[in-house]
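Contributing new records

If you add data, match the layout below exactly. Sequence lines come first and carry their own label; structure lines follow with theirs. Keep one chain per record. Anything else will be rejected by the validation script.
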Amino acid sequence: MRFTLWFILLILSTEMFAQQGSDVTLKVDKKYKNWDTTKYQKFERVLIVGILQQHRTFSNELSQSMTEDSLGMSASPYSTEFNFAGSSGITLSYDKFQLALTRRIEPSYNNAGRGSTDMFNIGFNVGDNRWESENYYRRFKGFYNTKTPSLDSAYFAQTKQYFQYPKMVTSLFMSRFLYFNNYIDYSFKSGFGCNYRQLKSAFTWINGGSISVFNLRNDSAMIPLNSRAYYKDYANFRGLRSVNIAYNFGAAATIVLFKAWFIAGHFTLGPEQQWRNYDMISHHRRISYISWSGTGRVSMGLNLKRMYIIWGFTNDYTIYGSRKTSTLRTNCLTSNFTFGWRFHTKTPAFYEKFMKSKIYSYL
C-alpha cells in the first residue's frame, strides 16, 4: 500500500475573554461570554481525539462558446483519480489547536486506465465565534479525461485507457474570511468542528471575502486533438494562472434536535475579480475579468457532551469564463466522516506557562 500524507490542518481559535484556572469542565462555562450560552457552548481545554475518514477529488472542465457544438464534443472534463479512493487518519484537538493526519487508502478496484494522482494539502484556520479565516494550499498532479469513451470510442474499447495527463498540475492558494452576523445565537464551529456544541437551532447571514492564486499547467496542449478545432485561438491552451480577489455573501443555519442531533448548512456566492494569464505555448494572453466564486457546505451528526459524530461535505468552486470564448470551471469536492471523544484532562505545566505568554494572548 502506498502511503500518502494528505494534509496537515492546524486550527487556531481566539477568544475575547480571560481564561483562569486549570480545572476542565464539559459544562457551560459560567464566565462572561459574548454569545447566548443557552444557544451554544464551547468546550474549554478538553483533549479531543477523533477518527477521520476523508475523500477528496478535484476537476477542471473546459468548454467553449466560439463554435456550435450540438453533440457536446468540445467539452473536456479532467478529473483526479481519487473519485473512489480516500484517506483515513486521526484528529487531535486541545484548546486553540487542532492537528489532523491522514494516509491514503488504495482503491479496491483496478485503477489502471485512469492513471494516478499525487496530492498535497496543508492549511490552517484562525478565528473565534464571530469570524473565521480559512487558509490553505492544495496541489494535484495527474489527471485523466472522463469523456474519453465518447471522444474516441474505438481507442477506449481496445485499450480500456482514458486519455491521461500525468504532467498536468493544478494548485490553489486560498485565504478566505467569513464574518457571522448572528454570532450571539449561531456557532459555525458547532456544525463543522468539535470545539463548540449548538444547543438550539440558529441562523446567520455571512459576509466575507477571499484572496486566491490559481495555477493550471501541462507539459503540452491539453485539449484533445479531435476537439481542438472547436477552440480556434485557444486550441493550444496549455495552462492558466489567475490572481483573484472576491467578495462573498451567504447564509448558514444549524437545525438541532434534542440538543444532540444536528443538520448544518453553509452557502456563499459572490463576484470575483480575476487577473488571468493564459499560456498558449507560442504566446501568453492576459485578461482582467469579473466572474463568480463560492463555497457550499453540508454536515450532519450527533454532538454530545463527550462524544461527537460528524459527516460533512464541502464544494469549493470557481469559474474562469468568457461568454465569447472559453470557460474553465474548477471544482473541489471533499467529504469526511469523523468519530470523536472528549477526554477530561488537566492543563500540562508547560502549557500553563505558554498560556501566560504574550504569544498566546495574540492567538
